[in-house]
Write a structure and sequence with these properties.
This protein is an alpha/beta fold. The chain is built from 13 helices and 7 strands. Bound molecules: guanosine-5'-diphosphate (GDP) and magnesium ion.
Amino acid sequence: MVSELASRVLKGDHQALGRAISLVEDGGEEGRRLIRDLYPRTGKAFTVGITGPTGTGKSTLVDKIIEEYRRRGKSVGVLAIDPSSPYSGGALLGDRIRMMDHSLEREVFIRSMASRGDVGGLARAARNTIRLLDAAGMDVVIVETVGAGQTEVQVATAVDATVVVLMPQLGDEVQAFKAGFNEIADMFVVNKADIVNPAKTMFNVASGVQEKDGWRPPVLKTVALKGTGVAALVDALEKFGKFLDEHGLREERMRRRLEAELVEAAFSDFYNETVDRLKRDRQWHQLLGQVSKKELDPETAAGKLVKIIARLDASSNA
Ligand SMILES: Nc1nc2c(ncn2[C@@H]2O[C@H](COP(=O)(O)OP(=O)(O)O)[C@@H](O)[C@H]2O)c(=O)[nH]1
Ligand SMILES: [Mg+2]
């Protein structure tokens, strides 16, 4: 039996969806139950990650991508992961207002999620939020993140297609991220083509792209403010989706992502449970005392700790 909240999510009820996302964001038992109930009903949405340096026009572009998909009769769910950087406090509000244009439409659901210190926890909440949007019947799910850090890599590896958004004249900033972006990009967009001729940037990016699984990431140009090039971008996304399906890559990639997700989730749970149990363990406190009194060195103590943890684990399974 599926919970009432889960069945409302399945019907695409926006209020229920909002509540459900809060629950998976909290990371508690209720959120877990929801995912358990809804997971069998996921897998239909085409999921897209939009990432790149701050200020390249990602939010503006997402707005236009929503419009384009709406024109094509598709429903769209959006998850915006805001940067924790204090410098972008204004952008956060701006993003919300700009994205609000679509929030009232029934076929569009937009949610933002604050980034936080715990990268693993955020990636986990993001993955489960994508599942909820998928279960709610969204045809397309878009996730916006900033940068090329661990979060982006983890979120990028939680979607079908990753778009890296750059702009002309980024210079050193892009150089620093280049390797990371190449690793995750299924296509590149050079936005703000209205400000400076993007040809040089496009050439530079194109000369560095790496073919992955037989797909050569295209380099497109857009003017997000005016919507120029957005239809071509959505065409490229649809083409990539077809490519994945035709080559059995959607399944294969999903399997690879699940492999990473399961290992991460299990280690994270194991870590948290172990820390909790150690707090109550006498031997652990003794060991700590010995190290702080210099009766034992940290390296030897770590070896002993492994044995203490193994014992804790064995006794909990007994
Ligand atoms: N000239 C120009 N400005 C743009 C374009 N796209 C976005 N912007 C502006 O660039 C700024 C940053 O855009 P935003 O979408 O918030 O970037 P994000 O940080 O990547 O999400 C805003 O002031 C936008 O209005 C574009 O194609 N041309
Ligand atoms: Mg943004």
